[in-house]
Amino acid sequence: MNIELIKNINKNIFLQLSLERRRKIGEISSMKIYVYDNEGQNIPHFHIRINDLPDTCLKILEAKWFDHGKNTGFLYRKQLKELYNWLCKNSYKHWKEIIIEWNKHANNKIDINFQIPNYLNII
After folding, report:
1. Is residue 13, in this structure, part of any structural domain at all?
2. Over its length of 123 residues, how does the chain's per-residue pLDDT go in tens digits?
3. Among 110, 122, 102, which residue's Cα sits nearest to residue 35?
4. Residue 55 forms part of a structural domain
5. How many domains does the chain have?
6. Per the domain annotation, does 102 fall within a domain?
7. What are phi and psi of 23, to 5 degrees?
8. Which residue range is the domain that position 111 belongs to?
């Protein structure tokens, strides 16, 4: 078998596994919100991806950034406000989805009624 073909097959398998490891919660403007499973981290958090930049991670239990691995991005105040408003919309529908997805794959479960931290205070 051709080496390039093997590389492409391996790349496709890796990309497919990567997609299976994350659950897209939603999208606002250029921000895509995900909860990843099996990260090996036990700190409740979610990811915000903007284009090809490193993911920005926010802790679920407190209004703090969570840098880990290559995920060292941050949001500007305007983006944070937009994200916060989106999470609070429709009786906190998206916020609850984040908690539900976290709870599916983590040992440290979070009460579905856990109040959203004020992420606007971290800047």
Report:
1. no
2. 556 655 555 444 444 444 447 789 999 999 999 999 876 568 999 999 998 888 999 999 999 999 888 888 899 999 999 999 999 999 999 999 999 999 998 888 999 999 999 999 985
3. 102
4. yes
5. 1
6. yes
7. -120, 115
8. 23-122
- Single pTM value for the model: 0.80
Give the residue carrying structure tokens 């073909």: 5
Instruction: Report whether 35 contacts 23 (CB < 8 A).
Output: yes
Specify which residues 71 forms β-bridges with: 68
Beta-ladder partners of 28: 31
CA distance 87 to 116: 8
Q: Per the domain annotation, does 3 fall within a domain? A: no
Full DSSP string of 19-76: HHTEEEEEEETTEEEEEES--S--S-EEEEEETTSPPEEEESSSS-B--BTTB-----
C-alpha 78, offset from chain centre: 18
